[in-house]
Specification:
Blueprint lengths: L1 H53 L8 H14 L1 H4 E9 L6 E9 L6 E11 L5 E13 L4 E8 L8 E11 L1
Antiparallel strand pairs: 1-2, 2-5, 3-4, 3-6
């Protein structure tokens, strides 16, 4: 009976020791694996940075080149830099809707002109009922705001809301 107890304890101790050794081996493997990947990534980053240093053809852009790049980007995407804030009401005497608001130019360099404002009329269920557009024939310099007021030939009593945005603009 005592031999059986010793055998049980010996089996428990051996299995525990083997379990600890297995866990330790896994931890050592993970540490080595992670260090290898990190040193490879560090080496790659170092080599990439050395490419930039050793390449004499890459010179920083001048201030004028940077401004030109920015202007090109802004001129190519006028609707990204033109936003509309407005109010609207039904004209009591006619079947028109009056929309009044401002177009703000948030660009840094580009001047825009002849801005097309697209107006969408929606029902209570947010269904588009009508679309209308008009052009604001003004210049909009960087950081400026252009005011507009228009009568649109659409007045439907089912209109619950209106949205407006600049859908196009020309550059100077």
């Amino acid at each position: 009976m005592e031999d059986q107890k010793k055998s049980k304890w010996l089996i428990i101790i051996l299995s525990s020791t083997l379990g600890f050794i297995a866990i330790a081996a896994i931890i050592v493997f993970l540490v080595i694996f992670l260090n290898r990947n990190n040193s490879k990534q560090s080496n790659d980053m170092f080599m990439n940075s050395m490419d930039n240093v050793s390449n004499p053809n890459t010179t920083p852009k001048t201030e004028d080149e940077l401004k030109s790049d920015l202007e090109t980007t802004e001129r190519a995407n006028p609707t990204k830099y033109l936003s509309v804030k407005f109010t609207w009401k039904d004209d009591f005497f006619t079947t028109n809707t009056i929309i009044e608001g401002d177009i703000t130019n948030t660009s840094s360099i580009a001047t825009f002109k002849d801005m097309t404002v697209e107006v969408l009329f929606y029902s209570k269920t947010n269904t588009e009922l009508h679309k209308s557009s008009f052009i604001v024939y003004e210049y909009s310099k960087p950081g400026s705001t252009v005011h507009f007021k228009r009568k649109l030939a659409y007045n439907n009593k089912t209109v619950a809301s209106i949205s407006a945005h600049v859908s196009d603009a020309k550059t100077e």
